[in-house]
Amino acid sequence: MPVFVWKGRTLAGESQAGEIEVARAEEALEALRKKRILVTSVRPKGSGFKMPNPLGSGVSTKDLAIFTRQFATMISAGLPLVQCLDILAKQSSKPSFGRMIGEVTREVEAGATLSDALGKHRNVFDDLFRNMVAAGEAGGVLDEILMRLATYIEKADALKRKVQSAMVYPAVVLTVAMGATAFMLIFIIPTFAKMFTDFGGELPMPTRIVLALSGFLKSFWWAMLLVLVGAGVALQRYYSTENGRRVMDNAMLKIPVLGDVLLKGSVARFTRTLGTLIASGVPILSGLEITARTAGNKVISEAIMTARASIREGETVAAPLKTSGVFPPMVVQMISVGEQTGALDEMLTKIAVFYEAEVDTAVDTLTSIIEPVMIVVMGGIVGGMVVAMYLPMFKLISVVAGGHS
């Protein structure tokens, strides 16, 4: 029987790791869940580094949202469950997704519950999806749950795209700036260097600095490239560790403007996910566990797991969130009011709506700040190099003019 290596956390948030001998990864997850361990990774023993599949499961978030909304509509219209799945399998625009739905259909026909059948395809239907479906089946409100789930998937995807655009934009601008600078130093500045050598005489200090940078980059560009690649790999490996992810995620939240976007995005994702789960009838302990996995930030995830441990001991959700110092006071206060009034799901949804709008504002602010800053930086770099290159010419002109006078 194959051996799987796993990493995870206890309910108290303590890191755990080990090996388990089971037939499939799904069985490993199930066994560890029974031991009350929140699994963060599980892989076959001896499996080394693998290139990630950029296509993933081949099913996009949009595909999943359309499938869920159509499924909800058909269930609401009174069609039998198996017939709904059969129709969805046949009309799927992606053959691979159609085959997957077909497999789910056969599982349901054989007597499995829908949530168990979906559990065979965890790469597409995550814990949140399956738990909500299970709650819908138990409560006899599967159509309502699926409609709520479709709305959640669409809003979560929109939020993710906004946060990603906020992170990608400055990275692209910085890359373009570095590329333009490198191009000038490698291809343009050397032509001036030859001309200055022919002139002779001592060059101004700014000119000597720019020529030295040009010469170094032209001769050792490969070394610089190796250093950048090495730094990237080292950073990625450090981020894959528990402590590395905690340190870097915490640092990201403290970056001016960008950190504000990331924090508001994490708060919106947390409140939207937990609110949707609670409203769907998922127990709050399971909801917090699922929410911690989808938080997208180690610091936020640990704060949620601390809140989960607090609830197990009979305390409130709001108290540990306040102690973490990560969540804004308004969020903590509104969650506290929601707990006291028994309308936590409604309060969480209101917070999510507010912070999703805040993310829009924060992204616009980030864009409006970055554009002028990068223009000034690029202008300073390019202008500085141009001035450095023309200084010897000014000196030469003054010498020539002095000789004629």
TrEMBL record:
Protein topology in the membrane: Multi-pass membrane protein
Subcellular location: Cell inner membrane; Cell membrane
Keywords: Cell inner membrane, Cell membrane, Membrane, Transmembrane, Transmembrane helix, Transport
Main location: membrane
Record GO cellular component, one term: plasma membrane
Annotated Type II secretion system protein GspF domain residues: 67-190, 270-392
InterPro entries reported for this sequence: GspF/PilC, T2SS_GspF/T4SS_PilC_CS, T2SS_GspF_dom, T2SS_GspF_sf
PANTHER family the record matches: GENERAL SECRETION PATHWAY PROTEIN, PROTEIN TRANSPORT PROTEIN HOFC HOMOLOG
Protein family per UniProt: Belongs to the GSP F family.
Protein's recorded name: Type II secretion system F family protein
Source organism of the structure: Eiseniibacteriota bacterium
